[in-house]
Specification:
- The chain contains 12 helices and 20 strands.
- By secondary structure, the chain is of the alpha+beta class.
- Helix 3 runs antiparallel to helix 10 and helix 7 crosses helix 12.
């Protein structure tokens, strides 16, 4: 059981920093922030503006072997709020696949925890839910948060960081050529090809890094994650999947265009993206894949495309997003829904299994948490998960920092344009780390 308190609070940037600075005392922290974005989130799909979960009372940490079965048991047994992540490599639990590429981050494949302390924010109010045995700490914690200096947990500076490429530019083009050959042979018709950028022997202030990344991007699915020495600082613009009541929605992104400081030129770029036949075909292929995934468990005839190829504008880029929904039976477990749709189609390609196999052969780094998801389950079995893209991942014990970017490769892909798109997506992360 949880004890509930409510306080009036305006979710300002300075308050968010106070809250996150206070949270650094705990080994387990997940912060999910919509950055006040109402357009993409839409009140139909999201109840909260931001959520903070800290301090595990129970947790599950496992490799890929029977990972979804273990998560199902944990979720069904706990019947409480659970927060955590799914790495991309859980694909190996679903299909006969492997992940043997280099891994410098060493994140556990799946990790969820039941927080002792939980903060649910709407625009003007916070609902605080503490487990019974720590409920007497609510008022004191709230006073501590309000009195916290938002900069008190920042170290002076990040160490000098020089970003390296796991895949050289020449190698990228060679690999792209091989992928295009697979497409021409009909093995696949779209693939999400990813590459890693990294730095070693790094001392990083994760909270400071997250705050700067979020300031640059202000995405609707921003995340700060801390599990002991593992950190994720995510400026994700993409929702993977959510369930509220009987409704499930997925919002894949496919299609990217740069922004321009000139408003007229910026509108032209946005309009050009919305009409670009290659970008639209990429998005429609993945929309079809998501429709197929949802149809495995949806109530008959309920799968529908609510928005197709709609262009949304973010701080750094314009993105093309589709929204696919369905209705599900109350008897269907939340973990089953996730397992049937994982990994998300926007990060695999199509057909999904063939694309995953070929990308494993072509990519030089294990994706790990990149291309995975961070999110939560409610006690009622509702959930919401983002897609881990536009994210900096850090292993403090190994002093290894990494970010990865990818793009959809189709028969119409122009290699130079694909490479430029990768650099565009990487811009904010690189700026944050190399400043």
């Amino acid at each position: 059981m949880r004890v509930k308190n409510k306080y009036k609070i305006s979710l300002t940037d300075s308050f968010k920093q106070q809250l996150l600075s206070w949270a650094q005392q705990f080994n387990e922290v997940i912060w999910l922030d919509s950055n006040h974005d109402n357009v993409i989130l839409n009140n139909k799909y999201s109840k909260y503006k931001a959520i903070l979960a800290v301090d595990a009372i129970t947790s599950i940490k496992t490799d890929v072997f029977n990972a979804f079965e273990k998560l199902e048991e944990y979720q069904q047994t706990t019947k409480d709020w659970l927060f955590g992540y799914l790495t991309y490599d859980l694909k190996n639990d679903i299909e006969n696949l492997r992940s043997t590429n280099f891994d410098g981050l060493h994140f556990p494949d799946l990790l969820f925890f039941q927080p002792k302390k939980l903060f649910l924010f709407t625009e003007e109010e916070v609902e605080i839910l503490y487990l019974n045995f720590v409920a007497d700490e609510i008022e004191e914690d709230w006073k501590d948060i309000l009195n916290t200096n938002s900069n008190q947990n920042y170290s002076e500076e990040n160490s000098s960081i020089k970003i390296q490429l796991r895949t050289s530019k020449d190698s990228y083009f060679e690999k792209l050529d091989q992928i295009m050959n697979h497409i021409q042979r009909g093995d696949i018709y779209e693939a999400n090809f990813c590459q890693e950028f990294y730095s070693e022997n790094v001392s990083l202030d994760p909270l400071k890094t997250y705050v700067h990344l979020n300031e640059l991007s202000k995405p609707p699915f921003a995340t700060y994650l801390k599990f002991d020495d593992h950190f994720a600082m995510s400026a994700s613009p993409e929702r993977y999947i959510s369930k509220w009541g009987s409704k499930v929605i997925s919002q894949p992104i496919k299609g990217t265009a740069k922004r321009d400081a000139d408003l007229v030129e910026d509108e032209l770029l946005k309009d050009r993206l919305s009409k670009d036949p290659k970008e639209r075909s990429e998005n429609i292929m993945i929309t079809d894949l998501v429709r197929n995934d949802l149809s495995r468990f949806a109530n008959k005839g309920s799968v529908q495309v609510e928005e197709l190829c709609k262009v949304y504008t973010f701080e750094q880029v314009h993105q093309m997003i589709s929204t696919i929904s369905c209705e599900v039976s109350s008897e269907l477990s939340p973990v089953k829904i996730i397992k049937e749709t994982f990994p998300m189609g926007s990060m695999t390609g199509a057909p999904k299994i063939s694309a995953m196999k070929i990308m494993e052969e072509q990519e030089d780094a294990k994706r790990g948490l990149y291309s995975g998801a961070i999110g939560y389950f409610t006690p009622e079995g509702n959930f919401d998960f983002n897609v881990i893209i536009r994210s900096i991942l850090y292993n403090a014990a190994h002093k290894y920092v990494s970010y990865s970017v990818g793009g959809a490769i189709t028969a119409k892909s122009i290699p130079e344009n694909e490479y430029e798109e990768c650099l565009l997506k990487a811009k904010a992360m690189r700026e944050v780390l190399e400043r």
